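User: I would dearly like some help making sense of a protein record. This is the protein in question:
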Amino acid sequence: MRQEMKADATESRDVRKRKAEERTAANVRKKAKQAAVRDHAETILSTSLVTSLTELEIQLQARCSASSARCAFLRDQFHARVSGETPRLYPGLGTEFRSKHGKLKLTPSDGTTNKEAYLKALITAMITEDGDVIGNPNALPTFTENYIRVLPTLSAEYTNPIAFCMKEDFARQIADAAAPQDDPVYVELHGNYIGKILYDFETRSNAKLFRIVSIQFVRSFTAGRHSCWEATCEPVVRDPATGHFRVPLEIQVPGSNVTLTHALQGYCLAEYVDGLDSEPTMHPWVQSYIDHFLTVIKPKFSNIGMDLPSTTPTNSSSETHKDSPSLSRTPKRRTRPPDR
């Protein structure tokens, strides 16, 4: 009897320990996913936030091939505006965009309203209200660098100058510690690949020439796919008059320089096969495509100049493009040759 009770107690402890570890792991995954969502929203806010109705319409036309892509784009625009420590409240938006508790919602209240139409109306109203508050600093989110409480100065006239200097030095140290830094892997990949022309000699598609326009980190939360660094490429053709490469007009939104998203192509550059704490595994095929272009394709063009056209992506929504680890126009698919 005592042996059985002892075995039961040991088994109970093991079960409680295992359950506790499972809850901890689940909580870690949940927090990581929430952090990734917030990071994505902040990236959209700083790199590809739509600020006008004309720009919104162009971006939606660029995703004309799939309603799911348009809905995902609209959701990203929503989260970019309401995420963060001091999100916008949008008091001008009516009850049709709010839940019964007054919170802005992403889904229509009735089941008959088209979800895409609802999201478009919501973002349109938010952009309109954004334009109404320009010039009113009290209506916009405010940010501060005072992450650590500093005692106020009651009288500057009777304060020791040494104390002023120490406070200024302390503020500089805090600002330096809080300054964002680029991922070293991203910096390396950006320097090696951004703006390069590649020739995909292994694809069956007619489009084989591409230009790398952005590099982003793609986080995976499933066991079947590794987190990776991905290069987004736009198809290009050679202009016989100049010898430069440009995006064909038929795959751009009319009247703009925005490329249709279904024409973009993604290539995996590096994967975290052993987890994010380990070094990424670099893949060779993109470099082989670049080498093939330089050694086989480029010499065939007699009048091609040494200077290729500007590497500013032609499918950005502004004159200056900022590529980022979570770009909204990244294609959902990834193309790569089979493992050899």
